[in-house]
Amino acid sequence: MHEKDGMMKTHEQFADDLALYALGELAGTDRQELEEHLHTCAACRRELQALRGDLGLLGLSSSGPQPPARAKERLLRAIAAEPPRVAVPAPVAAPRQSLWWAWIPVFAAVAFFFLALGMWRDNRHLNDVLAELNTQNHDLTVQLGRVAAQIRMLQAPDAVHVSLNPAKSPRQPSGTAIFSPSQKRMLFMASNLPQVPEGKAYELWIIPMQGAPMPAGMFKPDEHGNAMMMDHPMPEGVIAKAFAITVENAAGSDKPTSPIMMMGEVTAGG
Question: Of 71, 139, 251, 268, which has the fewest CB atoms closer than 10 Å, so is most exposed?
Fold first, then answer.
């Protein structure tokens, strides 16, 4: 990168010079710096190629988007620096008419530049909008995939519903565990749960046919005593005999450390 006027040129400043370069109106150190930049910047090379293609297709237009102030000022300076043409001896009015026709190609080039630059900027904006829409579509697809997985688990032929009731109470708290061995997923819902002390939480346990209880997730009820754990993985190869709930430290425990508060057995019919 070269220095100009005591400051380092930015990528955007090089991008502003691309249209002047495509018109052949960039000279001196500016042209040298841009050509060196083009060797290292693939994005600017693509933009230059697009500008050259647009200039070859567009017709003369007196209207169009306004170019950047810096590019317009540099282009006008290039026009003013063009050497005057030699006119054939003629009456006094003849040189003015000849000069006017001589400037027409320059005016056409300016019009081409304005219109091509506007189309280039519109194209970049449309690309940004398209990228944002693609991102939103991906996020929506992921969310729909999760919902579909939960629906498949709930509708699986082998889905089992297990109701959990207080171990030593006639009523109040209740819970339901639903799991599918084929889908290897489970969910748990509870209501009327009492609030837990600070630093504590409820822990759900899977009690297998053989072996010790296995932790299946931590949760806390809301202000109404309701709680839900959605779309939890079911340990592979484990045949559940029952589900239970205890109160543990909020960080969780590898084995129950307090009395079972609620428990429900898996029945043969689900």
Answer: 268
Farthest CA pair distance, the chain:
119
Whole-angstrom Cα distance, residue 200 to residue 220?
9
Q: pLDDT band for 85, please (50, 70, 90 cuts).
A: very low
Residue ranges covered by each domain of the chain: 2-54, 160-265
Q: Name the residue among 222, 16, 24 with its Cα closest to residue 108.
A: 24
- 160-265 CATH fold: Immunoglobulin-like (2.60.40)
State which H helix or E strand residue 130 sits in: helix 93-155
User: pTM for the whole thing?
Assistant: 0.41
Q: What pLDDT digit, counting tens, does each position of 188-210 carry?
A: 999 999 999 999 999 999 999 88
Tens digits of per-residue pLDDT, 132-141? 899 999 998 9
Distance CA 151, CA 147 (A): 6
Residue 180 phi/psi, 5° resolution? -130, 115
CB count, 10 Å around CB of 210?
7
DSSP label of 75? H
Give the H/E segment covering residue 165: strand 160-166
